[in-house]
Write a structure and sequence with these properties.
single chain, alpha/beta, 9 strands, globular
């Protein structure tokens, strides 16, 4: 069995991370083997920009690329054929690195809007894998709503991306970064069910590394189970300010690898030497 676990962060650059001034994505890819592409939410990138992303990463690196907000939030998946075609054309240079097209829907997208999602997925090109993130509480609190969403996703072999904020909301915030995350992140129930062979989970902890690691124990066990079932999961590690996210992603992978010794290792980042006076 060819076991695969990909781990990454919500971004590929951060002031707290050990990175050169140029080729930050190349540097990031020496630490992690996946990344959330959030910048595409704000605008469709040029093909040349995407080609530069591909050139800085190996073929087995995974991008989970977020659809632009004009498609998901402004048009709510309706009458977006031209915008979707333009976006998919732009990301073509990623080739095999394009792991999934990430459809992050606004909190106002409710069970009554599932028809729009079903029509969008039905018409979307089958050359791409799709993964959907919902934030309306009904999908997490009402069994009928969750079941209807799962059926819509199953017809397109699309995955449901959970954003696990349980650790973040486990106690009140103690810093500005945690308070900001409390205001912006969805507070919904934890989901542990994979719909496809390629589950994706977004996990956010707290400022405390110890609390963040303690909170992901269930996720380590879940990933080990998914691997034993032949699934190929991708896990994204967040913290309120993401300063420790890079190290935490590698730590998560190492924790799973301790339970699954046959798991391929992550790349080894180059050693960084401290600056000298001469």
């Amino acid at each position: 069995m060819n076991l695969q676990l990909h781990v990454g962060c919500a971004q590929w650059t951060h002031p707290a991370w050990p990175q050169p001034s140029r080729d930050k994505l190349r540097s990031y890819a020496s630490w992690c083997n996946a990344v959330e592409s959030n910048t595409t939410f704000y605008a469709t990138p040029s093909r040349s920009t995407v080609a530069s992303w591909a050139a800085q990463t190996p073929p087995d690196f995974r991008f989970v690329v977020k659809l632009p907000q004009v498609i998901t939030h402004e048009r709510r998946l309706t009458n977006v054929d031209a915008e979707l075609r333009a976006f998919l054309t732009a990301i073509e240079p990623l080739g095999p690195r394009d792991h999934a097209v990430w459809i992050q829907l606004p909190a106002a997208f409710s069970p009554t809007d599932l028809g729009a999602l079903a029509a969008f997925l039905h018409q979307a090109p089958r050359d791409y894998r799709y993964a959907v993130e919902v934030r309306h509480r009904a999908f997490f609190e009402e069994g009928e709503a969750a079941g209807n969403l799962e059926r819509v996703l199953a017809r397109a072999d699309a995955e449901w991306i959970p954003f696990d904020t349980g650790t973040l909301f486990s106690r009140r915030p103690t810093s500005f970064a945690e308070r900001d995350a409390w205001m912006k992140k969805p507070h919904v129930a934890r989901r542990t069910r994979a719909l496809t062979a390629h589950p994706i989970v977004r996990y956010i902890g707290r400022d405390s590394v110890d609390e963040t690691v303690a909170g992901w124990t269930y996720l380590v066990d879940l990933v080990v189970t998914w691997l034993s079932e032949g699934r190929s999961p991708t896990i994204f590690l967040h913290t309120p300010d993401n300063a420790e996210a890079l190290n935490l992603a590698r730590r998560f992978h190492a924790t799973v690898a301790a339970a699954v010794p046959t798991l391929p290792p992550l790349p080894e980042p180059p050693e960084t030497e401290p600056p000298t006076l001469f």
